[in-house]
Design brief:
- Helix content is 32%, strand content 24%.
- Strands 1, 2, 3, 4, 5, 6, 7 and 8 form an eight-stranded mixed β-sheet that branches.
- Helix 5 links the parallel strand 4 and strand 5.
- By secondary structure, the protein is of the alpha/beta class.
- The N and C termini lie far apart (47 Å).
- The protein has one domain: Rossmann fold (3-Layer(aba) Sandwich).
- The structure holds S-adenosylmethionine.
């Protein structure tokens, strides 16, 4: 299935957004997640750079289409944990290194200063929705990240207000970068941003 124009794609996504979330996922989730331009950049350009950098990583939010990511991230000796709220989705996490739980309470799930990298892509606006919850997620992520660790944040402009502009991350994070990636870039309606956990 190919969409004729950018505008048609955008209208289509806005229409999908009004359908109940469970039905959205059933009907279109897998196809769109695998083929969207932001996903292709994530898998082909962004994750390989993080994989090369290695370290102890946390991937948040596990779906069928993300099941191969932990192995990709561990290819060069890194260690990748996965975290997912929904118990049934554990099967898409990294076997032996998966935790069922809430990102906003991640500080209760992992020891302080555990991770060199946290990937929080498609969770803001897809479960972690209001400003309070989003601030809690940043706070909890900062707690389990080492000082100077990297956060890859990915969010959809049609699912959430800008959490960074709202000042929800600034208590714990400053702009960062990794291996030539821009600090912030937008692909369609998906925003990627890289942050460094404050010392
Ligand atoms: C749209 S999917 C994105 C999955 C994946 N992170 C990606 O990049 O495609 C959102 C996922 O985040 C999970 N999720 C939502 N809120 C969460 C929370 N508070 N803690 C952990 N996982 C959460 C959902 O259950 C779902 O699997």
């Amino acid at each position: 299935m190919k969409f004729p124009t950018k505008t048609a794609r955008s209208v289509f996504k806005k229409l999908i957004a009004v359908i109940p979330k469970k039905l959205q996922k059933k009907l279109f989730g897998h196809y769109w997640a695998m083929h969207s331009p932001d996903r292709l950049v994530l898998v082909k350009e962004i994750l390989p750079k993080f994989s090369k950098a290695g370290g102890t990583m946390l991937w948040v939010g596990c779906e069928k289409y993300t099941r191969t990511y932990p192995k990709l991230l561990e290819k060069h000796g890194g260690v990748c944990w996965t975290l997912e709220l929904v118990p049934e989705q554990s099967r898409w996490g990294n076997s032996g290194r998966h935790i069922i739980g809430d990102l906003t309470k991640a500080d209760l799930l992992f020891p302080e200063h555990t991770f060199d990298v946290v990937f929080c892509n498609g969770v803001i606006g897809w479960g972690v929705n209001g400003p309070e919850q989003q601030r809690d997620a940043f706070r909890a992520m900062a707690h389990i990240m080492k000082p100077g660790a990297t956060l890859l944040l990915g969010w959809n402009t049609y699912r959430s207000k800008d959490p960074v502009l709202a000042g929800l991350s600034s208590g714990w994070f400053v702009p960062g970068t990794l291996d030539g990636l821009e600090q912030k870039f937008k692909i369609g309606e998906h925003v990627y941003e890289i942050f460094e956990r404050k010392d």
